[in-house]
Write a structure and sequence with these properties.
There is one protein chain. By secondary structure, this protein is of the alpha+beta class. It folds into 2 domains: about 170 residues, no CATH class; about 325 residues, no CATH class. It is built from 9 helices and 19 strands. The strands form 6 sheets. Strands 8, 9, 15, 16, 17 and 18 form a 6-stranded mixed β-sheet that branches. Helix 2 packs across helix 3 and helix 2 runs antiparallel to helix 4. It is elongated, with a radius of gyration of 35 Å. The relative contact order is 0.14.
Length: about 500
Amino acid sequence: MRLNIRIRQFAQDEHGTMLVIWGLTFVVLLGIAAMSFDLGRTGITRSELQAYTDNVALAAAGELDGKDDAITRARAAAANLISDRKTFGTGGSVLSGDTDYTLTFYSELPDDDTAALTAVTTDPAEAVYVRAVATPSTVAATYGAAFAALTGNARPNDQARAASVAGFTQYACDITPLMFCIPPGFSADASVGDMILLRSGGSGSAWGPGDFGFLDPAKVLVDDEGPCAGLNGAQLDACLLGAEGSITQCFNQRGVDIEPGQKVGIRDAIFNVRFDIYKAIMNGKRNDPDYPPAPNVIKGIVPSSGGKGKGGGSCIGNNEDPSPDTVGLPRDGCFASGGCTRFGDGNWSAGRTDYVGTNYGGVDPHPGATTRYEYYLEEIDAAGGPGGAGSILSGLAETGRPVCSPNQSSNPQRRVVIAAGIDCSANPINGATSDVPVQEFVKIFLTEPVGDDGASPPTLDIWGEVVGSAGGGAGGTGDVGIFRDVVQLYR
């Protein structure tokens, strides 16, 4: 009887109950703590891998400029430029080299960010995007092992993964919507001083069937506060080709659109405001500060009224005569001899002798200038600089300074245009061709006014001298064109 009583008392006794509850709770809390530690380690590893793949993708994407070796350079940049560390996970603590990631290149991305990437390419000309996938890193469930020992339920190790997608685009803004087909092996910096006949009319003068050297300005981004804001049609063409300032039309170097046609009737007038010539569609622009002439406008042309060009304020307009005692900068001699047609050789020695003899009485004031552009700049500096009013030529029919427009540009590069050099052998153009890759944007100095031979249709020749490459660098004060390499993460 006494034993039964003691058993009932023990069963009803509540002393020590909390110890059991705390013991069970401790097991649960230990499990939660173990999981939180392990999950935290996994999360840290994933974050570290994500930062690593972000940097790898950006480094690789920065080389995707469409050149033949773009993918090779992209792989090298990712492998050689990026090094990181991970705190946890197997496979070592240093993240570096292509054993810690894989790269896949794509020509386009789907509109839906959640959709799978399918446009895989191995063609460097088409590779616009790159996906970097980190080698998975196993994070051991170290603290989970203690929980497993108590519960008998083993927690599996975690796999930390990461992937990033980046892309590259080159934009050229505030440039002239011109193009030309480059000859084999062409490099702007290796062709400084050579002449190019950018545009010519007549049979056989097109760069491609129906294409005479113009980019399509219809899709460019125009600065809402610049001189071209709100314009369209011929007026937009006039602004894009003739204005100075924040035009901000932007072309994607990976693919520009070609505008077909000879575009006769307005193009010579638009270009020639740089030479202090205002006529046709540009007749009302001579007092507009957005359309100033260059600080050096020597061209061998004077108003037909006779002599009023000697600082008299006359405008050439539609009435012009050859100057009686000045000449403009000459062309390469091979054009006159028939040794070249569209691309010169930079040899203008014979023409230089005539230029110096006519304009300077035979004594060369700038013997150190080797190119026409250098000579042009030396003439400006000798007359007091680009903002000066001093005569470049004294006592002649031309002073060398503008006399029609009161708005002389302070930028010597006012006579420099930027044209898209296209490899037309690799990328044939025909009429309105879209997404044509640009090999190189080229700075070209306009050596003479755009000519109109009076034929029907007229032959409008655009002659220029290569100043150098414009692609890739950022234009600053006193420069022309703004170039931006845009590298960004997409996923």
